[in-house]
Amino acid sequence: MHSLKTFSQLFITILLATLVAGCVSAPPPLPPRPSSDFAYYPKVQPGITTVEAAKSDLALMLKDTDINVRRDKKQKPYQFANRGEVEQLLEEYKRRGGKSGELWTFSRPFESEIYNIGLDIKAFPVSNDRIEVPFDTPLLYRDLLNDKLVVNVVYYGVDAYNYSINFANRYSFHFGPKDLASAQRFADDLFVIQEHLKKQEKEQLAAFEQQATRYREQAVKPAMSEEQRKLIVQANALNQQKAYADALEFYKRALAINPISYPGAYFNMALLSAQQNRFQEAIGHMKKYLLLVPDAKDGRNAQDKIYEWDMQIKK
Protein backbone atom coordinates (compact mmCIF):
# COMPACT_ATOMS: atom_id res chain seq x y z
CA MET A 1 0.00 0.00 0.00
CA HIS A 2 2.81 2.36 0.84
CA SER A 3 4.41 1.74 -2.57
CA LEU A 4 1.10 2.33 -4.32
CA LYS A 5 0.59 5.61 -2.41
CA THR A 6 4.12 6.72 -3.25
CA PHE A 7 3.59 5.89 -6.92
CA SER A 8 0.32 7.82 -6.96
CA GLN A 9 1.98 10.88 -5.43
CA LEU A 10 4.81 10.65 -7.95
CA PHE A 11 2.34 10.35 -10.82
CA ILE A 12 0.41 13.39 -9.63
CA THR A 13 3.64 15.37 -9.23
CA ILE A 14 4.76 14.52 -12.77
CA LEU A 15 1.32 15.34 -14.15
CA LEU A 16 1.27 18.73 -12.43
CA ALA A 17 4.81 19.47 -13.63
CA THR A 18 3.78 18.59 -17.20
CA LEU A 19 0.74 20.81 -17.01
CA VAL A 20 2.79 23.71 -15.64
CA ALA A 21 5.46 23.24 -18.31
CA GLY A 22 2.75 23.14 -20.94
CA CYS A 23 1.31 26.39 -19.66
CA VAL A 24 4.73 28.03 -19.71
CA SER A 25 5.63 26.90 -23.22
CA ALA A 26 2.20 27.44 -24.76
CA PRO A 27 2.18 30.33 -27.26
CA PRO A 28 0.39 33.47 -26.12
CA PRO A 29 -3.16 33.86 -27.41
CA LEU A 30 -3.83 35.93 -30.48
CA PRO A 31 -5.02 39.51 -30.00
CA PRO A 32 -8.78 40.11 -30.28
CA ARG A 33 -9.96 39.63 -33.84
CA PRO A 34 -10.23 43.03 -35.61
CA SER A 35 -13.35 44.02 -37.48
CA SER A 36 -13.36 43.78 -41.26
CA ASP A 37 -13.44 47.58 -41.59
CA PHE A 38 -10.33 48.09 -39.44
CA ALA A 39 -8.05 50.84 -40.74
CA TYR A 40 -5.09 52.62 -39.21
CA TYR A 41 -4.09 55.97 -40.69
CA PRO A 42 -0.46 56.90 -39.99
CA LYS A 43 0.62 59.95 -38.06
CA VAL A 44 3.79 61.68 -36.93
CA GLN A 45 5.04 60.08 -33.73
CA PRO A 46 7.11 61.83 -31.01
CA GLY A 47 10.81 61.52 -31.73
CA ILE A 48 10.27 60.62 -35.41
CA THR A 49 9.56 64.02 -36.92
CA THR A 50 12.31 64.33 -39.56
CA VAL A 51 13.07 62.37 -42.71
CA GLU A 52 16.43 61.34 -41.30
CA ALA A 53 14.84 59.99 -38.11
CA ALA A 54 12.18 58.12 -40.10
CA LYS A 55 14.74 56.48 -42.39
CA SER A 56 16.91 55.51 -39.43
CA ASP A 57 13.94 53.94 -37.65
CA LEU A 58 12.97 52.04 -40.82
CA ALA A 59 16.52 50.69 -41.15
CA LEU A 60 16.43 49.56 -37.54
CA MET A 61 13.09 47.76 -37.70
CA LEU A 62 13.69 46.16 -41.12
CA LYS A 63 17.14 44.86 -40.19
CA ASP A 64 15.65 41.92 -38.29
CA THR A 65 12.00 41.35 -39.06
CA ASP A 66 9.47 38.86 -40.38
CA ILE A 67 7.28 40.42 -43.05
CA ASN A 68 5.63 38.88 -46.08
CA VAL A 69 5.99 40.98 -49.21
CA ARG A 70 3.87 40.33 -52.28
CA ARG A 71 3.94 41.73 -55.74
CA ASP A 72 0.72 43.28 -57.00
CA LYS A 73 -1.29 41.11 -59.38
CA LYS A 74 -1.09 43.87 -62.01
CA GLN A 75 2.68 43.46 -62.16
CA LYS A 76 4.19 40.96 -64.57
CA PRO A 77 5.18 38.32 -63.91
CA TYR A 78 2.93 37.84 -60.90
CA GLN A 79 3.94 34.20 -60.50
CA PHE A 80 7.01 32.05 -61.12
CA ALA A 81 6.88 28.89 -63.18
CA ASN A 82 9.32 26.88 -61.09
CA ARG A 83 11.30 26.84 -57.88
CA GLY A 84 14.55 27.58 -59.69
CA GLU A 85 13.32 31.02 -60.72
CA VAL A 86 12.37 31.81 -57.13
CA GLU A 87 15.73 30.67 -55.77
CA GLN A 88 17.57 32.71 -58.40
CA LEU A 89 15.59 35.79 -57.40
CA LEU A 90 16.41 35.27 -53.72
CA GLU A 91 20.09 34.71 -54.42
CA GLU A 92 20.21 38.07 -56.18
CA TYR A 93 18.38 39.61 -53.24
CA LYS A 94 20.97 38.23 -50.83
CA ARG A 95 23.73 39.89 -52.88
CA ARG A 96 21.96 43.20 -52.23
CA GLY A 97 21.94 42.53 -48.50
CA GLY A 98 18.50 40.99 -48.11
CA LYS A 99 17.58 37.89 -46.15
CA SER A 100 14.61 35.64 -46.87
CA GLY A 101 12.73 33.04 -44.88
CA GLU A 102 10.98 29.93 -46.13
CA LEU A 103 9.38 29.77 -49.56
CA TRP A 104 5.71 28.94 -49.76
CA THR A 105 3.84 27.65 -52.78
CA PHE A 106 0.43 26.60 -53.95
CA SER A 107 -0.83 24.40 -56.77
CA ARG A 108 -3.79 24.75 -59.06
CA PRO A 109 -5.91 21.81 -60.21
CA PHE A 110 -4.62 20.17 -63.37
CA GLU A 111 -1.61 22.50 -63.50
CA SER A 112 2.03 22.13 -62.59
CA GLU A 113 3.16 23.72 -59.34
CA ILE A 114 2.91 27.50 -59.36
CA TYR A 115 5.07 29.70 -57.15
CA ASN A 116 3.27 32.79 -55.98
CA ILE A 117 5.38 35.94 -55.80
CA GLY A 118 4.89 36.37 -52.08
CA LEU A 119 7.97 35.88 -49.92
CA ASP A 120 8.68 35.86 -46.21
CA ILE A 121 11.51 38.32 -45.67
CA LYS A 122 13.73 38.49 -42.58
CA ALA A 123 15.75 41.58 -43.51
CA PHE A 124 15.16 44.47 -45.92
CA PRO A 125 18.20 46.59 -46.89
CA VAL A 126 17.37 50.28 -46.45
CA SER A 127 19.27 53.14 -48.11
CA ASN A 128 18.78 56.87 -48.50
CA ASP A 129 16.29 56.61 -51.36
CA ARG A 130 14.77 53.11 -51.15
CA ILE A 131 13.84 49.89 -49.43
CA GLU A 132 15.15 46.90 -51.34
CA VAL A 133 12.57 44.21 -52.08
CA PRO A 134 13.23 40.87 -53.81
CA PHE A 135 11.78 42.04 -57.12
CA ASP A 136 13.01 44.04 -60.11
CA THR A 137 11.94 47.47 -58.85
CA PRO A 138 12.80 48.61 -55.30
CA LEU A 139 10.36 50.47 -53.10
CA LEU A 140 11.53 53.99 -53.91
CA TYR A 141 10.65 56.71 -51.43
CA ARG A 142 9.81 59.11 -54.25
CA ASP A 143 6.99 56.75 -55.27
CA LEU A 144 5.29 57.22 -51.89
CA LEU A 145 3.45 60.21 -53.35
CA ASN A 146 1.11 57.66 -54.95
CA ASP A 147 0.34 55.77 -51.76
CA LYS A 148 -2.35 56.08 -49.08
CA LEU A 149 -0.27 54.22 -46.44
CA VAL A 150 -3.29 52.80 -44.65
CA VAL A 151 -2.96 49.66 -42.53
CA ASN A 152 -5.88 47.34 -43.32
CA VAL A 153 -6.82 43.88 -42.14
CA VAL A 154 -6.90 41.00 -44.65
CA TYR A 155 -8.73 37.76 -43.85
CA TYR A 156 -7.72 34.33 -45.18
CA GLY A 157 -10.35 32.28 -43.38
CA VAL A 158 -12.59 32.34 -40.34
CA ASP A 159 -9.79 33.28 -37.94
CA ALA A 160 -6.74 33.67 -40.20
CA TYR A 161 -5.78 37.27 -40.90
CA ASN A 162 -2.90 39.70 -41.12
CA TYR A 163 -2.33 43.44 -41.44
CA SER A 164 -1.51 44.82 -44.87
CA ILE A 165 -0.10 48.02 -46.36
CA ASN A 166 -0.51 48.39 -50.13
CA PHE A 167 1.80 50.41 -52.34
CA ALA A 168 -0.17 51.48 -55.40
CA ASN A 169 0.01 48.75 -58.04
CA ARG A 170 3.46 47.67 -56.88
CA TYR A 171 3.68 45.69 -53.64
CA SER A 172 1.90 44.88 -50.43
CA PHE A 173 3.59 44.28 -47.08
CA HIS A 174 1.86 41.84 -44.71
CA PHE A 175 2.33 41.69 -40.94
CA GLY A 176 1.15 38.88 -38.68
CA PRO A 177 -1.79 39.15 -36.24
CA LYS A 178 0.61 39.88 -33.37
CA ASP A 179 2.54 42.51 -35.33
CA LEU A 180 0.05 45.37 -35.57
CA ALA A 181 2.44 47.68 -33.68
CA SER A 182 5.16 46.96 -36.27
CA ALA A 183 2.75 47.63 -39.14
CA GLN A 184 1.77 50.95 -37.56
CA ARG A 185 5.40 51.89 -36.94
CA PHE A 186 6.25 51.05 -40.56
CA ALA A 187 3.39 53.21 -41.85
CA ASP A 188 4.22 56.08 -39.47
CA ASP A 189 7.85 56.22 -40.64
CA LEU A 190 6.85 56.21 -44.30
CA PHE A 191 4.23 58.88 -43.61
CA VAL A 192 6.93 61.28 -42.38
CA ILE A 193 8.90 60.70 -45.60
CA GLN A 194 5.75 61.10 -47.69
CA GLU A 195 4.84 64.44 -46.10
CA HIS A 196 8.37 65.70 -46.76
CA LEU A 197 8.11 64.67 -50.42
CA LYS A 198 4.77 66.47 -50.80
CA LYS A 199 6.25 69.65 -49.37
CA GLN A 200 9.32 69.30 -51.58
CA GLU A 201 7.21 68.76 -54.70
CA LYS A 202 5.09 71.81 -53.93
CA GLU A 203 8.21 73.98 -53.49
CA GLN A 204 9.75 72.68 -56.73
CA LEU A 205 6.59 73.38 -58.69
CA ALA A 206 6.42 76.93 -57.30
CA ALA A 207 10.03 77.53 -58.35
CA PHE A 208 9.31 76.10 -61.80
CA GLU A 209 6.36 78.46 -62.24
CA GLN A 210 8.78 81.37 -62.16
CA GLN A 211 10.93 79.76 -64.88
CA ALA A 212 7.83 79.03 -66.94
CA THR A 213 6.66 82.64 -66.69
CA ARG A 214 10.00 83.88 -68.03
CA TYR A 215 9.86 81.25 -70.81
CA ARG A 216 6.41 82.36 -71.96
CA GLU A 217 7.48 86.01 -72.00
CA GLN A 218 10.48 85.34 -74.25
CA ALA A 219 9.88 86.17 -77.89
CA VAL A 220 12.71 83.89 -78.90
CA LYS A 221 12.65 80.59 -77.07
CA PRO A 222 15.93 79.00 -75.88
CA ALA A 223 17.37 76.43 -78.27
CA MET A 224 18.49 72.95 -77.30
CA SER A 225 22.21 72.29 -77.13
CA GLU A 226 23.59 69.44 -79.21
CA GLU A 227 24.18 67.33 -76.10
CA GLN A 228 20.61 67.88 -74.97
CA ARG A 229 19.28 67.00 -78.42
CA LYS A 230 21.32 63.79 -78.37
CA LEU A 231 19.76 62.74 -75.06
CA ILE A 232 16.25 63.57 -76.28
CA VAL A 233 16.73 61.48 -79.44
CA GLN A 234 18.03 58.59 -77.36
CA ALA A 235 15.13 58.92 -74.91
CA ASN A 236 12.65 58.81 -77.81
CA ALA A 237 14.35 55.69 -79.16
CA LEU A 238 14.20 53.97 -75.79
CA ASN A 239 10.54 54.86 -75.53
CA GLN A 240 9.89 53.22 -78.91
CA GLN A 241 11.69 50.12 -77.62
CA LYS A 242 9.37 50.11 -74.57
CA ALA A 243 12.34 50.59 -72.24
CA TYR A 244 10.27 53.07 -70.27
CA ALA A 245 12.42 53.38 -67.16
CA ASP A 246 15.55 54.03 -69.24
CA ALA A 247 13.72 56.52 -71.45
CA LEU A 248 12.56 58.43 -68.40
CA GLU A 249 16.11 58.62 -67.10
CA PHE A 250 17.40 60.01 -70.42
CA TYR A 251 14.71 62.69 -70.48
CA LYS A 252 15.70 63.72 -66.95
CA ARG A 253 19.35 63.96 -67.97
CA ALA A 254 18.37 66.13 -70.93
CA LEU A 255 16.32 68.49 -68.77
CA ALA A 256 19.15 68.75 -66.27
CA ILE A 257 21.05 70.62 -69.01
CA ASN A 258 18.20 73.08 -69.60
CA PRO A 259 14.78 72.57 -67.94
CA ILE A 260 12.78 74.79 -70.30
CA SER A 261 14.27 74.41 -73.79
CA TYR A 262 12.13 71.38 -74.75
CA PRO A 263 8.65 71.45 -73.16
CA GLY A 264 7.62 68.25 -74.97
CA ALA A 265 9.97 66.28 -72.72
CA TYR A 266 7.61 66.89 -69.78
CA PHE A 267 4.66 65.57 -71.76
CA ASN A 268 6.58 62.40 -72.65
CA MET A 269 7.85 61.98 -69.10
CA ALA A 270 4.30 62.26 -67.79
CA LEU A 271 3.14 59.42 -70.04
CA LEU A 272 6.16 57.30 -69.11
CA SER A 273 5.61 57.85 -65.39
CA ALA A 274 1.96 56.84 -65.74
CA GLN A 275 3.06 53.74 -67.64
CA GLN A 276 4.93 52.74 -64.47
CA ASN A 277 1.92 53.55 -62.24
CA ARG A 278 3.67 56.64 -60.83
CA PHE A 279 0.62 58.81 -61.24
CA GLN A 280 1.56 61.61 -58.86
CA GLU A 281 4.87 62.02 -60.65
CA ALA A 282 3.02 61.94 -63.99
CA ILE A 283 0.74 64.75 -62.85
CA GLY A 284 3.74 66.84 -61.80
CA HIS A 285 5.38 66.46 -65.22
CA MET A 286 2.18 67.27 -67.08
CA LYS A 287 1.57 70.39 -65.00
CA LYS A 288 5.06 71.61 -65.93
CA TYR A 289 4.27 71.00 -69.59
CA LEU A 290 1.10 73.09 -69.36
CA LEU A 291 2.91 75.84 -67.46
CA LEU A 292 5.37 76.16 -70.34
CA VAL A 293 2.86 75.86 -73.20
CA PRO A 294 -0.65 76.53 -71.84
CA ASP A 295 -1.96 77.06 -75.38
CA ALA A 296 -0.51 73.81 -76.78
CA LYS A 297 -2.64 72.00 -79.36
CA ASP A 298 -2.72 68.93 -77.12
CA GLY A 299 -3.33 71.02 -73.99
CA ARG A 300 -6.90 69.70 -73.59
CA ASN A 301 -5.65 66.13 -73.76
CA ALA A 302 -2.88 66.94 -71.28
CA GLN A 303 -5.33 68.35 -68.74
CA ASP A 304 -7.65 65.37 -69.19
CA LYS A 305 -4.74 63.05 -68.45
CA ILE A 306 -4.22 64.88 -65.15
CA TYR A 307 -7.87 64.24 -64.25
CA GLU A 308 -7.51 60.59 -65.18
CA TRP A 309 -4.35 60.08 -63.10
CA ASP A 310 -5.83 61.92 -60.15
CA MET A 311 -8.66 59.36 -60.16
CA GLN A 312 -6.10 56.53 -60.19
CA ILE A 313 -4.42 57.93 -57.08
CA LYS A 314 -7.70 58.25 -55.19
CA LYS A 315 -8.90 54.70 -55.92
Explain this structure to me?
It is a single chain. This protein folds into 2 domains: 39-195, no CATH class; 218-314, Serine Threonine Protein Phosphatase 5, Tetratricopeptide repeat, CATH 1.25.40.10. 50% of the residues lie in helices and 13% in strands. The protein contains 9 helices and 11 strands. The strands form 3 sheets. The chain has a 7-stranded antiparallel beta sheet with strand order 1-9-10-11-2-6-4, covered by helices on one side. Helix 4 (180-217) runs parallel beside helix 8 (279-292) and helix 6 (244-257) runs antiparallel to helix 7. It is elongated.
Task: Summarize the structure in short.
By secondary structure, the chain is an alpha+beta fold.
Which parts are unreliable, with pLDDT below 50 for 5 consecutive residues or more?
1-8, 106-113
Q: What oligomeric state do these chains adopt?
A: single chain
Q: How many structural domains in the coordinates?
A: 2
Number of strands: 11
